[in-house]
Write a structure and sequence with these properties.
By secondary structure, the chain is an alpha+beta fold. The chain has three domains: 59 residues, Uridine Diphospho-n-acetylenolpyruvylglucosamine Reductase, domain 2 (2-Layer Sandwich); 108 residues, Uridine Diphospho-n-acetylenolpyruvylglucosamine Reductase, domain 3 (2-Layer Sandwich); 203 residues, Alpha-Beta Plaits. Strands 12, 13, 14, 15, 16, 17, 18, 19 and 20 form a nine-stranded antiparallel sheet that branches. Strand 13 and strand 14 form a beta hairpin. Helix 9 packs antiparallel against helix 10. The two termini are 33 Å apart. Bound molecules: flavin-adenine dinucleotide. The site of flavin-adenine dinucleotide (FAD) has 33 residues, from strand 3, helix 3 and strand 10.
Amino acid sequence: MIQRRDAGATWSGNHRYRATEVLLPGDLDELAEVVASARSLRVQATRHTFNDIADTDAALVSLERLPTHVEVVDGRVRVEGLVTFAQLAPVIEAEGRALHNLGSLPHISVAGATATGTHGSGVRNGNLSSAIRAVEIMDADGRMHRIDQTHDRFGAAALSLGALGVVTAVELQTEPTYDITQQAYTGVAWADIAGDPERVLGGSRSVSVFTTWGDPAHDLVWAKSDDGTPDWVEELGGRPVGDDIHLGRIRTVDNTTPRGTAGPWHTRLPHFRADALPSDGDEIQTEYFVPLASAREALAAVKAIAPAFEAQLLVTELRTVAADELWLSPAYRRDVLAIHFTWRNDTAGVLAVLPSIEEALAPFDARPHWGKAFTLPGESVRASLTRVDDFLAAAREVDPRGVFRNDFLRRTVGL
Ligand SMILES: Cc1cc2nc3c(=O)[nH]c(=O)nc-3n(C[C@H](O)[C@H](O)[C@H](O)COP(=O)(O)OP(=O)(O)OC[C@H]3O[C@@H](n4cnc5c(N)ncnc54)[C@H](O)[C@@H]3O)c2cc1C
């Protein structure tokens, strides 16, 4: 029997869902019943978004009562239903396999993260959606479709914003398992980071820079390598931080993954441990993507206006994402610098400062993170997405009734 519960709020509580309730089907037949009878429907997964992308004025649906099989076949892993990276990783690790990268936390769902282009860092690492090789989607009539890389709508389906239907399973590319050693360093001068961001962010397999755009004591280079501790950070004056790590103004608690020792990929690639609250908890996040080739100029433009937003900021994280072929990807056909902001959980204060950052980044054709807070007008969002018309055509074709459309999609991409 289909169960129901309250729609609640996003993980950090910054957005309370307008949706009337969450429907919880127990199998694919019940899911088909929910979908086919819905006027409007969005999927609620692990709720780690910071805007209304998952919302609707009717009911939401959750896959949490559906089976969660994880199966490795021919170098790929097929993941069903509401599985998180924390659940997926040890299963494939036990079979000697790994993913190419992970985000800063393993608590998020595979389907929700890939629907929004969630990413880690690394100049050679595409976002998590780029590992998708096939998706199984239930359309608005309750019919199943398998869309693999040979399908002409694959570029829309692997990073779909939930607009093509309910993703019931994904297949991800895996690779042989590997170990990572990570270390976080203070003492690297901002002039070196901002003067040659590609050198710093490209120094190891995955590099993040944390900063508050002012106090050098907050500047941190966090490097994750598959060939031991990197020399290049120490050559730039970096000193390992030891146990007492601080990410800008985030209250630091014991929630980070081990540094200084080698360990399996999934125990080192996320900054935050699966058994602890990630980040701060009481926060809002924003992120913009600019071409990596413009990184130096884009950082200078944000630095110049930092006094205008500094009071709202807990910390900024800089990362890189390699180019991909997914139509709505912030990294579609361009390597990007990701400029992230963790804000105090003050919606009005954050919305007031975002336009100045968006204006500063406008010359660089900035694209927003789909799961985070932004105020860019739809025309700017659409202008930055070369394949948006193809995406809209695909979404209208598979969902002519507009069941999976919502205010967010109307406002941002014009669906
Ligand atoms: C502490 C924290 C740290 C973060 N770190 C990172 C990071 O390192 N990198 C990064 O890029 N982002 C990061 N994020 C953002 C987050 O990863 C993304 O916003 C992601 O989309 C969250 O997925 P979710 O399933 O939790 O969210 P949800 O809001 O539940 O889902 C996200 C979207 O996917 C859709 N969706 C979910 N499941 C399905 C499905 N089965 N079928 C169809 N549509 C579906 C939803 O409708 C919604 O539109 C972080 C967020 C938090 C809170």
